[in-house]
Design brief:
This protein is of the alpha+beta class. The chain is built from twelve helices and ten strands.
Length: about 400
């Protein structure tokens, strides 16, 4: 694989990152277009330790240069970030590269922030592509500010690239398996009381469905895990030590909070007076009107009948048989069909989005979703099928989750 690769430039700096577990990333690179020398790599980050596949620095440089070739005539709006996805079978690697304009040493340059993975990790990476791109875009926003101020962008990038490496390593080591056997779950117990209190399981499953199927299960309090805020969907926090369930606000409010949080981060970065003064992760305090206590989790407010009935009925079936697995599959199919029906209903009522949606009361009655929790579960399923549904229904005017509850109660 080393044939045809140019020698590594002595000007390229490299950082080795100590990552716990197996990191699927081969390297991350920051490169830019030099008007005299062409594509140049400014910095390389690689995980420490033995890897199944190894790239030399020269090979990393060659691959990073590949992403900038042909970008000299790039024409894009100010602030635009172009995402490139390469699968180079001849090299056995995947390259995800974000192309953007930035200022280096007072000159405007075309830059690229890239991550390189083995091609064997394609199936692992694809489900994570969207969230990785969003994280890298926010890294670029921070980097642009640092470049605009004339500071060394590598200091900011290093603080952001390392957590992304750690995230991918954690996902590789501790991800939920694709196929889960029901016999390994509490749904196979003879009695729900053997594993956990029935109300706790009901609340956990219901909240998980209301937050678009995103949950974290830990043994510490929710105030310590606000970095969940970068997730594209709201998240449920389940504490199995003390049997509590908390959840983020619904999708439209979560998106609103997320954008304010990110703007607050960028604002704090812009206000720094020194290159060595990179603000801490709690920059959210700079905007005192926005959740100054950092607690973005709240109690599960919406009761439902869908999950309650499912749990009651599944434990009427004898454990150890495939019947419970079949019943679970049918329950998920039911939710999926209800979500499709809800989308069709809203499309018809709004002429496919040409006019605002004003008949929530009729929707709840016609689709048998008068219970708030049932409505939120089905809307969460529909949100994953048609992104932006919550914002379309609730954001004119914008409602917080507390206001939304009051509105729902009036219909």
């Amino acid at each position: 694989m080393s044939s045809g690769c140019p020698p590594q430039s002595p000007a390229v700096a490299k950082s080795e990152v100590a990552v716990e577990g197996e990191c699927p990333l081969l390297a991350a690179t920051f490169a830019y277009w030099d008007n005299i020398l062409g594509p140049r790599v400014r910095h390389i980050w690689t995980p420490k330790g033995e890897q199944l596949m190894f790239l030399s620095d020269g090979e990393v440089t060659f691959l990073a240069n590949h992403t900038l070739n042909g970008e000299i005539l790039r024409s894009a709006e100010c602030g635009a970030v172009d995402v490139k996805f390469f699968v180079l079978a001849e090299k056995g690697v995947i390259i995800v590269s974000l192309i953007f304009d930035g200022e280096l040493k007072g000159d405007k340059n075309t830059c690229a922030l890239s991550i390189i993975l083995p091609q064997t990790e394609l199936a692992f990476y694809l489900p994570l592509h969207t969230i990785c791109v969003e994280r890298l875009k926010h890294v670029i926003r921070k980097g642009r500010i640092w470049m605009q101020k004339g500071y060394n962008i590598i200091s900011v990038l290093s603080l952001e690239i390392i957590p992304i490496m750690e995230l991918l390593a954690s996902m590789k080591s501790h991800h939920v398996p694709e196929d889960i056997d029901i016999k390994d779950t509490v749904l196979n117990d003879d009695d729900i009381g053997d594993s956990c209190h029935e109300d706790f399981l009901h609340k956990a499953v219901s909240s998980h469905l209301q937050t678009c199927g995103c949950s974290i299960v830990v043994g510490s309090n929710p105030e310590k895990v606000n970095k969940v805020l970068y997730s594209p969907y709201p998240t449920t926090h389940i504490d199995v030590d003390i049997n509590t369930v908390k959840q983020m606000p619904p999708c439209h409010e979560h998106t609103y909070n997320q954008r304010r949080y990110m703007r607050s981060e960028l604002s704090a970065l812009w206000k720094t007076d020194s290159e060595d003064d990179i603000p801490p992760e709690t920059v959210i305090h700079t905007d005192e009107t926005f959740t100054p206590d950092l607690n973005i989790f709240q109690d599960v407010m919406h009761k439902d009948t869908l999950v309650k009935s499912f749990i009651d009925e599944v434990f009427m079936l004898k454990p150890g048989l495939s019947l419970r697995s079949t019943y679970l599959a049918q329950f998920l199919l039911l939710l999926h069909r209800k979500a499709l029906t809800l989308l069709k209903y809203i499309e018809d009522e709004t002429q496919k989005g040409k006019k605002p949606f004003r008949s929530l009361r009729n929707l709840k009655t016609d689709l048998d979703l008068t219970v708030e929790g049932d409505l939120h579960i089905v809307m969460a399923f529909a949100e994953k099928l048609r992104a932006g549904l919550h914002s379309f229904v609730f954001s004119k005017p914008f409602y917080t989750s507390m206001q939304e509850r009051d509105v729902l109660m009036t219909f």
